[in-house]
Structures are given as C-alpha cells and as structure tokens.
Amino acid sequence: MNITDLKEKPLWQMTGEEFLFLQQNAGQPTVQPPLKPDTSKKYVYGICGIAKLFGCSMPTANRIKQSGKIDKAITQIGRKIIVDAELAIELAGRKTGGRR
C-alpha cells in the first residue's frame, strides 16, 4: 500500500485495513517537492493595461500616467508602454506632498 495514494482516496472508499494502515503511518513525513516562489515579474502593456491594473477608465489611466506618479514603473519605447504592475501599485499607494 502506498501512503500518498491512500491520502488521495476518499474515506468512504477505504477498506478497514487501508484506514488502519493510514492511521498507523500518519506520523511519517511524506516527501513533497519544495515550492518555488514566483520570481517572475508581471507586466501590463499600454494605457489599457494601466486601466485594468487600477480598475479605472482609460482617460483616468492616462491621467495617472501623465501625473508622473508611476514613472519609475513605466518603460516607454516609442508608442509601446510597458508597466511593472507590482511597482506601479506600490508607487501609486505612496503619499507625496499634500496640503500645507
């Protein structure tokens, strides 16, 4: 009997022998592959991508881009706009200036 197969099997389908075997060997660690964190960056493209990222209209996304608040997250080559999504959200959340 394989422990990993028994763990995937529903309890109502197990025989008494399988259930007792699983209980007796439950303390043994099962080998699982280590999880790799997602290190790839997420990018959005164009004004439409900025609008979807912030959940706003395209004119508002254009104002956000033109305000310069997320300039560090934007790479623009000609007409192509590439935005690092995580950095843009972080920069947009920061407060700068304010009333005096």
UniProtKB/TrEMBL annotation:
InterPro entries: DUF3853
Domain of life: Bacteria
Name used for this protein in its record: DUF3853 family protein
